[in-house]
Design brief:
alpha+beta; Helix Hairpins; 3 domains; about 15% strand; five-stranded mixed beta sheet; five-stranded antiparallel beta sheet
Amino acid sequence: MKISNKIMLLFSVLTVSIIFLMSFFVYYLANRYSFGDFYKRLEIRAYLTANAAFPPVGTDTLAYNYIRDRQLDKLPSEKEYIIPVEYAAGRIAVPKQLDLPRSFYEEVVRQGRENYRNGERFYAGVLYQHEARKVIVVVSAVNEYRGQYMDELRKILFICFIIAAALIIGAGLIFSHYILRPVHNIMDQVKNISSSNLHLRVEVNDGEDEIGELAATFNNMLDRLETAFETQNNFVSNASHELGTPLTAIIGEADLALRGERDPESYKAAISNMLREAERLNHITRSLLQLAQTGFEGKKQYFDIVRTDELLFSVKKMADRITPGNLVEIDYSLFPEEEEKMAVMGNFQLLELAISNIVNNAVKYSSNQPVSLALAATDTKNIIIIKDMGIGIPERDLPYIFSPFFRASNTDKFKGYGIGLPLTNNIIRMHKGEIIVNSRMNEGTEIQVVLPSANAIKKLG
């Protein structure tokens, strides 16, 4: 069932149910009122009958009879009874033609009035005192008005209910269509978006409602998809280029060497060129393999407690082996006093590779100027800070530095493949961390690697 039909059905059922309950309540109250009104009319007739039979001193009995018979409508099947009350005998002379319980008379004597119903015949009794004499006046009649009144009321309520139900269902259809119209518009727009026109976006209305949030969410998703498609296309084209260049060089050198007899030095030079290009190809393929393996969210990696201070010392030793004479220095000023804070859950080799990539880039792109390697720690996270005084990263290139094979526009003079930072980013994400980059052109770059501490992970676990 469509959502619009569900909304219409729910709206209609709820509203019709409320109207039905209100109609039932009105019918119930009208029924109760008809009883009370008829009893009131019976009591008036009873008092007039009593005053006509026993007029007060100074009044004319003809006046009461005239009012009772001419001014007031005679009730259907009306009957009147006057019953004397004999206190001396301690009893009430109950007439045989009245099938009323003795408690009715006793209640009239006690309270001065009482009502009783037997089927459709209603009784009203009042206590009337004339001089020293007390009598009970009982007037009974059949309540034909109630049946007619309630029949008419039922017809009116039923007609109103049918009309209201029809109007509610129609209003529900219009209401559901109006509410879901923006959703239909979004659906129509999304249907027109494919891989060939991912630049299109869903129109966002000005209102700050759920529909606007839905459209904004779709646009955010399309932004990510467009970026992913562009990254994939760039990755394929760059990977093809990076892999194709050394292969072309190897094939060219081999073809040239095999064209004719040459001296040993020429063969040695050709083989050296092929070896250099093969090593380059091997480095690229190994880097791509590492980059692919870190895309499995660490499911196949063994995690243990890693001391971040020891990690920094290991990274410093690796930097010394790769670039002898580097100016990488460990800044101890931010080290925490509590050793237990300097611990994270992770894979030591992967974290060493990630931090080493950043440090090696800092050394390379600063032309071996001083590089600071610092560590700060709190109860919930460890922060590794790598700061250099190099060429910096252009602001327009910052959003793409973690894309495979991407290289900043000011790195033409430096050798590289654009795989180190994407690999580092995958490793840090695998460890539930983040990388924060702050850079200024020709002033240097500061990179912060934030990792959740081992104690914080244990508390959450």
